[in-house]
Each structure stands twice: as C-alpha cells, then as structure tokens.
Specification:
Blueprint: E1 2-8, H1 14-26, E2 30-34, E3 44-53, H2 62-71, E4 75-80, E5 88-91, E6 96-99, H3 105-118, E7 132-138, E8 142-149, E9 159-164, E10 169-174, H4 179-190, H5 197-205, E11 209-214, E12 218-223, E13 229-233, E14 241-243, E15 255-260, E16 266-270, H6 280-287, H7 291-308, E17 315-321
Parallel strand pairs: 1-2, 1-3, 3-4, 4-6
Antiparallel strand pairs: 5-6, 7-8, 8-17, 9-10, 10-11, 11-12, 12-15, 13-14, 13-16, 16-17
Helix pairs in contact: 1-3, 3-7, 6-7
Length: about 325
C-alpha cells in the first residue's frame, strides 16, 4: 500500500487543489484527490491529509477530523481562504499545518515537508530524514531548532547543539568536535548566568565554535569563522534581511555582536546550506515566513541532496523571537 497525500477535494477550490497537488508531488508523494461521496481509496495509506478552511471557519472540518482519527499517524494540511497572521502556521505540535493565500509554491511545499518531518513513522524515500539530527527547543517567547547530519562511524561532522536556562536560549555550531566536547560545552552553557555572558562565550567557545544566544530581549552572537553564514530576517526591521557577519572580514579571532531582540526576529546560522549553490535567497525568503517554514525548507533541500546523491555534511541553527 503506497503512502502519500489524500486531498479532500470538496474542501478545496481549483486554485488550492492545484497548489496542494503540486507541492505534494514535488515532495515525492503519491496524490489522490477524493470526495467524501465516493468510495475511500484502498491503494493509499495517507501520510498527509489535505483540506481547506472556508472564510470564518475556526475549526478543523469534520471530514478531516474523521480521517485523522481513522488513520492515526497522518498529519493534516489546511489551506485557508482567509489570510493568516503569517503565511505558514503550525499547530498541535506539528500535527496540523495551515497555509494562507496566495499559496506560494515554496510556502505550500514547506508546509508539506514540515508536516512529513513531524510524522516520525513516514518511510517515503524522497522525504526520508533518517540522516538528519533535528532538535527543537520551545519556550513561551523563544524557539530554536538545530539541524545537523548524522556522521558516519568514526567520522566527525559539523554539529549543532541548543539548550535553555530560565532566562537564556542558546545554540552553538562546531566543526571537528568530539561528542565529549559537545556534551561538556552544553553542560557549561546550562550553568551560565546572564552576567558576563560575552566573556564566558569567549572562554567556552573560543575560536572553534559559534554561539547564538537569545536573552529575554537581547541577541548575543559569538562568531569565529568567516566562511560560515549568519543572517537576521524580520518583517519589522529595515532592512528585512541582514548579513550579520560579512564574509572575508578582516581581523583575527572571534567576533561578537549584541543587539536588541524584536518579536518576529529569525536568525539563520549555518556551516553551509543544503542544496544547490545559490540557495541563500530562497532560504531567507522561507525565513520571512517564520522559523518552522525555514526548517521545512532546509529539510526539503536536504532530501533533494540525498535523492541526487550530492549529500555533504552541514549544521544549521534557526532561532526565533516570538513575542
């Protein structure tokens, strides 16, 4: 029995039906459009159930609820006729994803990939994420995700770690670090107070690792490697995209930067981006729709690399100030 996407066609007009079908097929899923008046297809085990929301509707449609209860592990994607607070919204710990107009290709596919990534039992090869290590840290006002590649036995690869204290959300990028070094650094960061944070980062991270820290209302970044990338994206700032550390900067040793945090800030920091060269603009465009949209984009590009046989190690940190 094939796994794929079940599109509940009576809940989707032509434009939304086409957008959903294209995004699902681009993600490697078999697609069946189904009307509840017809017999249920027996050849498909839905990994994703796709429907729509009519204007004014604030609840999941009954047809979708019944299907979700029957199939259990399936995730739900709803395309809303009305604009949302942002083009892509995740609910219920990743079980339900909402997309609002104008249903841009990258946004709808990001929602599909995000929903599939949250469904841990998915086995469709085109979107398999077994080689990725993905970890989310969620607080009331701060959210962080780290993505890195599972190294081969007896090999090292770029790594990302994250954690929280009562007042600090922190993450780090490192290359050629052993598991023991990563664990030791994480332990030290968990005990770190806000006072003297910048000096502590210099001591803990040195010139071999980067750190991205979000206090209650302040960003603190420690950046040792000019070949890595760090960007700030925000709809409430001008410019909306800011390259935090210009490549090829002069000077020796790590650089630090501190600045106020604003609601809606998203920081993307990476050793490299997965996918074909020149993907920065697409990644930053995804970041403008929020951290989850960016993570879904990164998963999709990593899956593309796997499928094309061009996979290389990378590590990414995505951190968002939510309120």
């Amino acid at each position: 029995m094939a796994q794929g996407a079940l599109l509940v066609s009576n809940l989707l007009d032509g434009r939304r039906l086409v957008a959903a079908e294209q995004a699902c097929r681009a993600s490697g899923l078999d697609v069946i459009a189904w009307n509840p008046d017809d017999e249920r297809p027996k050849s498909l085990l839905p990994a994703l159930i796709v429907g729509g929301l009519t204007p004014g509707l604030r609840a999941i449609p009954d047809e979708i609820l019944k299907l979700s209860a029957e199939y259990g592990e399936s995730r739900v994607l709803l395309l809303s006729e009305e604009p949302l607070v942002r083009p892509l919204v995740m609910l219920h710990d990743g079980r339900v994803w909402l997309v609002g107009p104008p249903y841009l290709d990258d946004v709808v596919r990001a929602a599909v990939m995000g929903a599939l990534a949250a469904r841990v039992t998915l086995t469709t090869g085109a979107v398999a994420t077994d080689r990725l290590i993905v970890d989310e840290t969620i607080l009331s006002t701060r959210w962080c995700a780290t993505i890195s590649v599972q190294p081969e036995p007896n090999q090292t690869a770029p790594a990302a770690r994250a954690g929280t204290t009562d007042k600090l959300c922190w993450s780090m990028l490192a290359e050629q670090w052993s598991v023991a070094e990563l664990d030791g650094t994480a332990t030290r960061m968990r005990g770190q107070a806000l006072a003297g944070l910048e000096g502590a980062l210099t001591e803990i991270m040195g010139s071999r690792a980067a750190a991205i820290c979000l206090e209650q209302r302040r960003w603190v970044l420690h950046w040792p490697n000019s070949s890595w990338s760090a960007w700030l994206c925000s709809r409430s700032r001008l410019p909306q995209r800011w390259n935090l550390f210009q490549p090829g900067r002069s000077g020796d040793g790590p650089t630090q930067r501190t600045f106020p945090a604003r609601s809606g800030d998203v920081i993307l920091a990476c050793t490299r981006l997965p996918g074909k060269p020149g993907g920065t603009d697409a990644a930053l465009a995804a970041a403008m729709h929020g951290g989850h949209a960016l993570v879904a984009w990164l998963r999709a590009r990593s899956a593309d690399e796997d499928r094309e046989g061009n996979a290389r190690p990378f590590a990414v940190v995505v951190m968002e100030m939510r309120k």
